[in-house]
Amino acid sequence: MNIIYTWPTWAIVAGLIVLTAPAAIIGYRAGRSEEQDESERAFGVRTGLKSSILGLVALILGFTYSMTSGRFDDRQRLVLDEANSIGTCYLRAGLLSQVNAKAIRDTLRGYTDVRIRLFDEGLDPAAYRRNSAEMDARLDALWRSVEASARSDPDLTRNSQIVPAANAVIDLSSTRAWSVRNHVPPPVILLLGACIVASGALTGHSLGQVKRPSNYLWAVQNLLFALVLYVVLDFDRPRRGLIRVDEQPLIEQRNGMNR
């Protein structure tokens, strides 16, 4: 079911609208075919049920929006944490001997370049795997350089606190990789789509009961649902769509190290 996250966002939203149209037509015809001499109580019960279902759709939309926007904020903050950890490790490396400092700083510069390239080429699965493997290799090289520094001058390495700084860079890389895979569960997306289609059918049924089709009312409702769904999916896809995680802190950190 992860194929949901490989499709373009606009294609999913457009497909949902296409499914909602026939559902609304079916609901409209069902509403027109019903007898109109039902009691006021029965009419009130039906109206209440429809309102409850539409309220449930709104609740699920709001819940999913909150979930995805929160995860987007976490990814955004993680970029800043990564940039800060790289900068801290880079500065503390200057307290080591010249040889060890150069090895660590060169590794950090290369790692940051690959990290930015990973985001730029993230939509290409082959490039993503290649860049991820290169990042892991550079992190291994970073830790080997820290180990070499500890063996050559343990007191200087301990006083420079390079070990916790390097650990932070490695740990945040793992956290970043996990956050990219931490999507909203596919069943939630499918449930959301089914609810939007059902709401279209209920709207069509109500319009059929009054014998006066109001196409603009149906169109506005489904347009709003489609826009909310688009934003929800866009929040959940940090490397595609209109809403993207800002990599500027890493770019600025790379430029600072290059200077």
Structural notes for this entry:
The chain is mainly alpha-helical and 259 residues long. It has one domain. Helices cover 82% and strands 0% of the residues. The chain has helices at residues 9-33, 40-93, 98-120, 125-152, 154-160, 162-181, 186-209, 215-235, 248-258. Helix 3 packs antiparallel against helix 4 and helix 3 packs antiparallel against helix 9 (248-258). The longest helix has 54 residues, at 40-93. The radius of gyration is 27 Å and the shape is rod-shaped. The protein starts with 8 loop residues before the first helix and ends with a helix. The mean pLDDT is 83.
Overall spatial form = rod-shaped
Kindly estimate the percentage of residues that lie in beta strands according to DSSP.
under 5%
Beta strands, count: 0
Helix content: over 70%
**Spans of at least 5 consecutive residues with low confidence:** none
Cα-to-Cα separation, first versus last residue: 46 Å
